[in-house]
Amino acid sequence: MEINLIKCHGSGNDFLLIDEITETYNFSEKDRQNLAIALCDRKKGIGADGILFVLDSDRCDGKMRVFNADGSEASMCGNGLRCVGRYVTELKNKSDITIETMKADLKISSEPSIFAEIPTFKVEISPVLFELKHLPMNIDKQTLIDEKVPEISAALTFTAVAVPNPHLISIVENEHILSNEQKSISESVNGPNNLFPDGVNVSFVQSLGTDGIYVRTFERGVGFTNACGTAMSASTLVTCLSGLNEFEKEIDVFNNGGKVRVIVHKNDEQFSMDLIGNATYTSRYKLDLDVKEPESYHTLNHIDFDEERSYSELQEHAKEVVEKNVFLKA
Prior knowledge:
By secondary structure, the protein is of the alpha+beta class. It folds into 2 domains: about 1-125 and about 280-315, Roll (Diaminopimelate Epimerase, Chain A, domain 1), CATH 3.10.310; about 130-275, Roll (Diaminopimelate Epimerase, Chain A, domain 1). The protein has 6 helices and 19 strands.
């Protein structure tokens, strides 16, 4: 069969987007897993962090399903949602839409460019759940907010939150970013372990003073990624809870893939976030493949877009800020 797809990214977190609204592919669940494993392989496939399947919805403008490069399905993906939001707004000629995700229907809108002439979209990140049963995390507590977990680290404190993807977040100093500590912790809680039976995304967050914050994330099912949208949103929320940043204000969030802005909303004890950033198309493909053996695909057509040139300017700006405040600070 022939499959059309777009390679795209949010903050360097890259995806393959497959349209099931205008196309009728009729994938099984196993087909989706096989496609993600084969096509996202960076050595033998096209290479990406995951596949975004864009489907019809009976109550929203569209539906997003996200499959990671290892074939697992994610309940949400903030960077991917911006790309899906762009695709559906352009498909339906709307500036404001709602997309159905696994756990919530989320609002998306086209926004003024975050930098240069970059296509920019704002997506709602919710629900925010602190009860550890939602991650799940097996520990004798109901919530974990800025506390030590001796089984993970003797020195660092952590906050656990589901948005609804599970996140374990620590606000750290420069020496922790430069060490191998995050890798060791992340591999431990995403391998066989008693605390996180389903694994967890692990983020280290460093304050950049007036410039904002830097977030580096080990994403379950992916590993270290340029950026994770829900992690950057959840990490910004944690800095607001700690008093490092303020609610209801735009906060610049730098990552290894670029920069986004996050606004954390607090209504009584309920929280939500607006994630604002790029949705960049890099190329379009037409493939001929057998969904039972997608690793043997053939490329029928491949067109590169010119949008990456503008995004590279934002990347360079972000790189300068991060190197100055993080990697050259020691």
